[in-house]
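Let us work through a complete example step by step.
Step 1: write down the sequence.
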Amino acid sequence: MSDAGESRSERLPLVHPPAAVGADECAPRVAGVLLAAGTSSRFGDANKLLATYEGTPLVRHAAETLVEAGLAPLVAVVGYQRDRVTAALSGLPFTVVENPQYDEGQATSVRRGVEALDPDVDAVVFALGDMPAVAPESVRALVDVYRTESWTALAAAYEGERGNPVFFDRQHFDALAGVSGDRGGRRILTAGTGSALVETGDAGVRRDVDTRADLDRFG
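Step 2: predict the structure and record it as tokens.
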């Protein structure tokens, strides 16, 4: 999930969200997991998740997107400087869980997030704490495609290029709990026959912050 790019061999079908989705009493219960445990090694001495964009920590921007998208329940996975990151999420409706293995790669946070989900959720959206410009509408687009089509693994896209966040039906939860390394659920997304990209028209789904130069470009 951490890699927003893709090779031609990983090209997935591109779909567009429906024009409208009506109210549905049986709508799926979609959880949100915020991955906010990393060490920010390329950002220098500071924790990039706590760097500010428009006066607000990056991680809080990312968290507010999931809240505004209407996902529930919400889980934040923290690790590096966990107390400070948790404080940045104060007042938001997240259950915060610690990943003591955060330095072993993003997959450990994905596993921790899956383990923390309520057993009755139908699907989950994974969002990255270093992506402050994702629109709530882009998250809802993933949910709307899931509700109206048969895809089980989805990634937000801009101009046909894969980005984040990503969406998985519960049938993938066991596989997500078994991922390793720093790719998160990328292999599950790119290998599945039920996988697709959702065109959002939102450049924010391709814009993460790895370095201070990245953050300066958000200004």
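Step 3: interpret the result. The domain at 28-216 is CATH 3.90.550.10 (Spore Coat Polysaccharide Biosynthesis Protein SpsA; Chain A).
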